[in-house]
Amino acid sequence: MNSLATSVFSIAIPVDGDEDSASGGGVVAIDNKIEQAMDLVKSHLMYAVREEVEVLKEQIKELVERNSLLERENALLKSLSNSDQLSQLPAQQANLGSTSQQPAVIAQPPQPTQPPQQPNVSSA
């Protein structure tokens, strides 16, 4: 047990006979060892929490970038669609909400004989 405490907490806990257990100094020594162990646990927990915060910050950064990209893509698609297609969106969204258990089938507009020219869009 003593070697386990020494290896984990880097503190030595005296075994019976190592200290005078009848004196008040033994109690103080044990209290100090407990306080040291608690401080060590606290520092390890704080380190783990800091690492997790860094990971979460990175995930938030990636999600914000993805959201921005999707917003730009949405704006581009809106600019390329005609007003008839945009006016059909609220009706389609209402149908999706009322038939949540059935898969939604969105009518595709008729395809033109020549595809429209796509503008050059570079992702930033």
UniProtKB/TrEMBL annotation:
Q: Does the keyword Coiled coil apply?
A: yes
| Gene3D superfamilies tied to this protein | Single helix bin
Could you tell me where the Polar residues compositional bias lies? 81-100
Which parts form a coiled-coil structure per UniProt?
Answer: 46-80
User: Which Pfam families did the record assign?
Assistant: TSC22 (PF01166)
GO terms (BP aspect): regulation of transcription by RNA polymerase II
Keywords for this protein: Coiled coil
Record has Oxidoreductase as a keyword: no
Source organism superkingdom: Eukaryota
- Identify the stretch(es) annotated as Disordered: 81-124
Residue stretches of biased makeup (Pro residues)? 109-118
Family to which this protein belongs? Belongs to the TSC-22/Dip/Bun family.
Q: PANTHER family given for it?
A: TSC22 DOMAIN FAMILY PROTEIN 2
Q: What is this protein called?
A: TSC22 domain family protein 2
To which species is this protein native? Trichechus manatus latirostris (Florida manatee)
